[in-house]
Design brief:
347 residues; alpha/beta; Enolase-like, domain 1; TIM Barrel; 2 domains; 3-stranded antiparallel β-sheet
Amino acid sequence: MTLCDRLAGLTLSVEGYTLSGLERTTPAGWTRKSTVVTLRGGGHEGQGEDVTYQPEDHEPFQAAGSVHDLSGRWTLAEFSQRLDGLPLFASPPLDPKSTLYRRWAFESAALDLALRQAGTSLAAFVGREPQPLTYVVSLGLGSPPSLAPLEGLWASYPDARLKLDADLDWTDELVAQLAGTGKVDCVDLKGQYTKGPFRGTDPDGALYQRVAEAFPEAWLEDPGWTPETKAALAEHLQRVTYDAPICSLSDLEQVWPRPQAVNIKPSRFGRVLELFRAYAWCEANGVVMYGGGQFELGVGRSQIQLLASLFHPTSANDVAPSGFNLPELASDLPASPLRVENQVGFR
């Protein structure tokens, strides 16, 4: 029996659920909202976090409350099938991927509840021990971009390693300075975000070539493909990774070039079983995995850290403690590698 088979048969008893909102201002000045889904049953609670980005999609969801009947005894697979028939959004969300994020909130809460009712931890269930978790810090370089934000980071965390978003405003001098730090593990080219708040620089062959040559050891994430960019990265395809397009095992199997590494964002898979199918495929095919966050404000952050510590602890995991996403950087955040506690449930 595979791990996915065992997970599919994991049972839970649900009596009801509640919703609660979280809110925080990001360093970039925009307000992040999320919704925590809490499933109740048998004296236990399981939690998951809806990381839908648009505040307009959280407000009616929270206001409506627990309008869906999820009560009953289910296997995890049956609970997922129950969600198939429910309108988790009263009207179509502003971003189609939000349907996956909201579904993940319910499914991760179900996994948490099932494990708690069974009196076991996710680590014990999958037969792995959480390992010290290597993480990178994803930090903007300001406008105009400079090393100043990084110098502030390194003043408190001198060993912090980086994931950076490439920008056409990067000068030759800045690129040389960044390369000279030896601390850039991943450069996000943002070429797969075609719209929305995270839309990045339009695909640019000259930028891609400069980045690829300046950071010969770094992963090159989410290039946008044009004849120009294909030529620029022709000798660097082994370092191309994907993030935004990966929402299922099918996506992993179909992207070109076949990646040697991939950014796994659990909430983007929507379904718990689909996520674990992706884990199994990557391990079977020798594909390096690294974790990615979605500005989680609550339990969602600890859950993706736990998953990373179990399945890809030593990669360039973009799952740093949430304190790195605050406008004012504290000086007492846990350094990388991060110790991840093994607790009952999916926490």
